[in-house]
Write a structure and sequence with these properties.
The protein is an alpha+beta fold. It folds into 2 domains: 117 residues, no CATH class; 144 residues, no CATH class. 25% of the residues lie in helices and 25% in strands. Strands 4-14-13-1-12-11 form a 6-stranded mixed β-sheet. The longest helix is centred in the middle third of the chain and has 17 residues. The radius of gyration is 20 Å and the shape is globular. 35% of the residues are buried.
Length: 287
Amino acid sequence: MIKQVVVTDAWYEHDGQLLLNPALQAYEHHLLNMKQSWTKSKVVTPLSWYAKQAGQATAAVLASIAQHVPAGAKQYWVASPFHARLTRSSLRVMPEAMLDWSAQEGEQVCAVVNPLLAEDGLELFMVGDVLMLAAQDIWQVDMPDFALVSGQSLPNQHEGSQDAGRWLRMITEIQMTLHQHQVFTQSGMQIHGLWFWGQVKMCDAVDVEVLPHVATRNIYLNTVLKGLDKQRDASVIVSEAEHLPYLLPKQLPNDWLLLGAGQAVTLRSHWLAAALAKVKKPTWKGM
């Protein structure tokens, strides 16, 4: 039975105004009749939200279910492929949910990119349908969650870490390599680059018991759920807004968490909020 719904891209910011994702408009009336609690929150993907529930770096959760990892690896990252569109001044990354990705394309990317990475002691490898990067040495670089890149302009600089310059050079060279040796998804979408994030230096054991059983259509989170046997009897839906209609039961749950644009809004059914909604048009209180 679904007890909670978590939407990771429920909010976005436009011209300084916080807006609800249009994909949630069909549920807005139901949601506005609930009690709202607003807090600040980091921007997350479904996968990084799930890793946070275990108190682990995202790469640590993935590495914990890997059957084979490169020998001698000292550091790991999640490697998120992306499709980007050129604007006047930047590359605009397509949202993660829109990229139809599979292990087949992952193996192609490994074959194309690994010869380039080998000189820096780096190697791409697959964990289910997800790409990971392993390093033979410790890199001093701090990369933000892919949620900050998905649907946004690709950063052209990385500051505040010792190896930022080398890292930016590597990302650029990967983009050039994938331009020369093109990899396409089944729908014909070209992979333009990789974003490395969620890093971990040591892979501690993941406390599986604290993690909920989840329903999702996110390719990356599904890989973890399958590896941890957390797909059956789901009590939580974790989804991007556009995939939500395929996951919701007919009876909408009474506990929601709407994330995005640095905001976290907890919504719970409350008789007083529902009663007030009948006499006064409800609004999003934090907007």
